[in-house]
Design brief:
Two copies of one chain form a homodimer. By secondary structure, chain A is of the alpha/beta class. The first copy, chain A, has one domain: Phosphopantoate/pantothenate synthetase (Rossmann fold), CATH 3.40.50.12640. In chain A, 51% of the residues lie in helices and 12% in strands. Chain A is built from nine helices and eight strands. Chain A has helices at residues 11-25, 31-46, 53-68, 78-95, 108-120, 165-173, 188-192, 201-213, 222-243; strands at 72-76, 98-101, 126-127, 134-136, 146-148, 157-161, 177-181, 195-197. In chain A, β7, α7 and β8 form a beta-alpha-beta unit. The longest helix of chain A has 22 residues, at 222-243. The two termini of chain A are 19 Å apart. The model of chain A has no long low-confidence stretch (mean pLDDT 90). The interface between A and B is large, with 45 and 45 residues.
Amino acid sequence: MNHIPTNHPRAKSLYIRERLVEAFDAGLIAKEGLMAHGRGEAFDYLIGEKTSKSAKKAILAAAFMLKQARNPVISVNGNIAGLCSKEIVQLAKVSGAKIEVNLFYATKSRRQNIFRVLKKNGAPRIYGMDKKNSTKLSGLDSARRIVDRDGIYSADVVVVPLEDGDRTLALKKAGKKVITFDLNPMSRTAETADITIVDNVVRAIILLIKSCKNPKEIKFDNSKNLALAILEIKANLTRRARNAQIS
Amino acid sequence: MNHIPTNHPRAKSLYIRERLVEAFDAGLIAKEGLMAHGRGEAFDYLIGEKTSKSAKKAILAAAFMLKQARNPVISVNGNIAGLCSKEIVQLAKVSGAKIEVNLFYATKSRRQNIFRVLKKNGAPRIYGMDKKNSTKLSGLDSARRIVDRDGIYSADVVVVPLEDGDRTLALKKAGKKVITFDLNPMSRTAETADITIVDNVVRAIILLIKSCKNPKEIKFDNSKNLALAILEIKANLTRRARNAQIS
């Protein structure tokens, strides 16, 4: 549908956008997911569309937490399945984490479509598919409260990429450690999680997989790191205000 | 589909989001339009979801330019039709501007759906609907190059809400004055236009209609005003870094 000029200043971002439109057409993503992606694009633009120093630090801390976990689970929604199913499966393998499908705008067909894409990319077992094994997280209204008894419900560490704030809070209240990818360092999710990776998940997940192969303990304070992420955006704004030409 | 809690910190933004989803379902908006809206949401969040000082100034300047114009035209795409058709018609009436449908992702059915919504809201005549009367703007690849001979092609001032950068440049090269609404003060559109209103069009258009009823000449420098808009975002980031809780 769309032809992206190769000399476009933001071609990479436009390719990712196309991948998301394709995933929408394939029934993986909700309309709201397309808008959420747009919000992410804007924040990615503000951080300069590259992995920042603060994000690299959060990735190191996340890898260590994942490798130390007793029962880690990666929560997968439509957007993340559309953008990086292959990498999700790699991350699960390298970190020993389970994969669970967990949707905000839940429909049976979307769940099945996501399941198929994950399977196609080599996921061994996928949680969150069997109603008989589901239970509820308290303090949540949306369909996301329904979790797998052997997945998120019994996890000690949950990776929730592209998350909503209410859910992160509910997971925290249930005593979980939460690792999230969120391009907005001021969001409730970012502020509630134990480790917030302020980066485009498409870039960051590759670095997280690498770090899981060679985990190192580092000193990490999420609030301080988020403050650093905001400073990075402010520095970019100053730079762009001087010389940016971007559409 | 979606129930928005009335106490949600950003309920207004979520209502606008729902309106856009409805417009998508009604065939007015492209998938890419949903993502573009998401980008706008992020920038609106950064400017504090209110009309800033710099935006108010740009609105005053825009009203004066519109009222002085010999042949002003408002360019309408799917998003703007979905968000504020009624206000577009009001603005056209109060400013003496023509309305032209001009789409980036053009399909006949979307064009017809937008036409119907504008008609329903009282638009007298709508340009850009008759192929026989179309011609091309030079320097543009997308479908947006096709304009109405009696509309944008012969306009002296064009209002282009929610615009892409290439097109604003092409309009400038064709000798038009361009007024745009763009929530990103660093975009090419923002930098290329003569007057850039850095505000949510849903809020700003109401103020623009008011100002057109009582136009005043003011001193206005778009570059300086954009620099001010960026400073406003930076100030908001500082404030939010201290106390924001937003999802």
